[in-house]
C-alpha cells in the first residue's frame, strides 16, 4: 500500500503539539516523518490512530519500569487515539529471546493465564480502561495453524534474522539457538498485521521485533506502522535498569508508605530522568521546577512532589499524604500511627528471639548482626547488648527506619 500523501500545508498547532508529546522522553521514533503524516491524516479525517503495546505476562507483577511505555500510551490516549493493550498469551508460550544469551524456558499455559489475570488490572492504573482495547494474540495466532505458520516464515530470511544482535552474539559464542526462537519476532510482527497497527511501542530492547511488524505489514499489503522505543528506566541503585532480579525496583502494588519512601531514596540526578519518564507534568512544568532547584530550592521538595504524584497514581491522594507524614515521622525517629501488634510468651525473652518471632529479622543470627550495626531500638533506645532479655511487658521494637512492632511479652 502506498504511503499517505505528504501534507501540503504546515502542520496545525495541535499536530505539532501531538508530535512534541510523542517525542517526550523517547529513545527513537521511526520514521518520524511518517508519524507526522499519520497525525496530519488523523486530524483531517477525524479517525484515531491505532497504537499498540504488547506485553508478555511472564511475571504476575508490574513495576515502575514497565510503566514507562504505559505512560507514553496514556499520553497518546489522551490525544484521542485508540490504544490497544495486547497480552501476549500465545507468544509467552515461545518465550521472548530479546537480550538473552541462552534459550528462554517457555511458560506453561497455566502460568500465563494466572499472570495475565493480574496484568491488565495493574496496567489500568495508568491507562484509561474505558478507552483501552484489550486483546490477546492467541485470537489470531492459534488460527494460523501449520500452513499459516509456514507461509509466515517464508516472509523473512535466516540471514536477516541473524542480524539481530542477541542471535548474532549467541551464534558467534557457540551458544545454542532453538528454531522456535525465530518464531517469536515473526509472531510479534504478525500481531501488528492482525491489529492494523499505526504505531507500536516498546523498550529499546524490542527494536528488532517492532521493525519486524513494519516489514510484515508491507508483506501483507498494509501501510507500515511507525516504531517508538522508550529508554529502560534506571532503578533505585542509580546504575542498572529497574528489575526484580537486581532488587532495585518499585512494584506498583507495593503499599503507599513503601512506594513513597523508595522514590525519595533515589539520587537528585536520577530524579529528573524519572520526572521525564514517569511524571504526567508537562515538560514546561518540569523545566520550571528544575530551574527552581538550580536557583537554590531544596531538591528534596521536588522529590517529594514526584513521590506524591506516583503514590497518588497507584493508590490515592489521601494515601500519598499519609505516606508523606509517615516518612516524616520515621525520619524524626517517631513511631508510625499503625504498627503490627505481636504477643509473645516465655518472658523473659532474648532480644534475638524477640526480633525473629516478631518478624523483624529472618533469623537470630541476622538479629545479632542488626544489633551489632546499631540498627535495633527498644522504646527508642539503641540496643547494644546481644544478650539482652526483655521481661514481661509491652515494648515498641524497631529495626532500621522502617520496621516496627508493638511487642507484648507474657
From TrEMBL:
Highest taxon above the source species: Bacteria
Cellular location(s): Cytoplasm
Presence of the UniProt keyword Nucleus in the record: no
Residues that hold ATP according to the record: 244
The keyword Ligase is annotated on this UniProt entry: yes
Positions occupied by motif 'HIGH' region: 57-66
Residues annotated as domain RNA-binding S4: 349-410
GO biological process, one term: tyrosyl-tRNA aminoacylation
Assembly behavior: Homodimer.
PANTHER family attached to this UniProt entry: TYROSINE--TRNA LIGASE, TYROSYL-TRNA SYNTHETASE
The protein, known as: Tyrosine--tRNA ligase
Gene: tyrS
Amino acid at each position: 500500500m502506498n504511503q499517505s500523501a505528504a501534507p501540503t500545508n504546515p502542520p496545525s498547532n495541535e499536530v505539532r503539539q501531538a508530535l512534541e508529546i510523542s517525542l517526550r522522553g523517547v529513545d527513537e521514533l521511526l520514521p518520524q516523518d511518517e508519524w507526522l503524516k499519520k497525525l496530519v491524516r488523523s486530524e483531517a479525517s477525524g479517525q484515531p490512530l491505532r497504537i499498540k503495546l504488547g506485553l508478555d505476562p511472564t511475571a504476575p507483577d508490574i513495576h515502575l519500569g514497565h510503566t514507562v511505555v504505559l505512560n507514553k500510551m496514556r499520553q497518546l490516549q489522551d490525544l484521542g487515539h485508540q490504544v490497544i493493550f495486547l497480552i501476549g498469551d500465545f507468544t509467552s508460550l515461545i518465550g521472548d529471546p530479546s537480550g538473552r544469551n541462552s534459550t528462554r524456558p517457555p511458560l506453561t499455559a497455566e502460568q500465563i493465564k494466572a499472570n495475565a489475570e493480574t496484568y491488565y488490572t495493574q496496567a489500568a492504573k495508568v491507562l484509561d480502561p474505558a478507552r483501552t482495547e484489550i486483546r490477546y494474540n492467541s485470537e489470531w495466532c492459534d488460527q494460523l495453524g501449520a500452513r499459516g505458520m509456514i507461509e509466515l516464515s517464508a516472509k523473512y530470511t535466516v540471514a536477516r534474522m541473524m542480524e539481530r544482535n542477541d542471535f548474532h552474539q549467541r551464534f558467534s559464542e557457540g551458544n545454542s539457538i532453538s528454531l522456535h526462537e525465530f518464531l517469536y519476532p515473526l509472531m510479534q510482527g504478525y500481531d501488528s498485521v492482525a491489529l492494523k497497527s499505526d504505531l507500536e511501542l516498546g523498550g529499546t530492547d524490542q527494536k528488532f521485533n517492532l521493525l519486524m511488524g513494519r516489514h510484515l505489514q508491507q508483506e501483507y499489503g498494509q501501510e507500515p506502522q511507525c516504531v517508538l522505543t522508550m529508554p529502560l528506566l534506571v532503578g533505585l541503585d542509580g546504575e542498572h535498569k529497574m528489575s526484580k532480579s537486581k532488587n532495585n525496583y518499585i512494584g506498583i502494588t507495593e503499599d503507599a508508605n513503601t512506594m513513597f519512601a523508595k522514590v525519595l531514596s533515589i539520587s537528585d540526578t536520577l530524579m529528573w530522568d524519572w520526572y521525564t519518564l514517569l511524571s504526567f507534568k508537562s515538560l514546561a512544568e518540569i523545566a520550571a521546577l528544575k530551574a527552581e532547584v538550580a536557583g537554590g530550592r531544596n531538591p528534596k521538595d521536588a522529590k517529594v512532589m514526584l513521590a506524591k504524584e506516583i503514590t497518588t497514581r497507584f493508590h490515592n491522594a489521601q494515601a500519598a499524604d499519609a505516606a508523606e507524614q509517615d516518612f516524616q515521622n520515621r525520619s524524626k525517629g517517631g513511631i508510625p500511627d499503625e504498627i503490627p501488634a505481636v504477643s509473645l510468651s516465655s518472658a523473659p525473652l532474648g532480644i534475638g528471639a524477640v526480633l525473629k518471632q516478631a518478624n523483624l529479622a529472618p533469623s537470630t543470627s541476622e538479629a545479632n548482626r542488626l544489633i551489632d550495626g546499631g540498627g535495633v531500638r527498644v522504646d527508642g533506645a539503641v540496643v547494644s547488648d546481644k544478650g539482652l532479655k526483655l521481661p514481661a511487658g509491652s515494648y515498641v521494637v524497631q529495626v532500621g527506619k522502617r520496621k516496627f512492632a508493638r511487642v507484648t511479652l507474657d
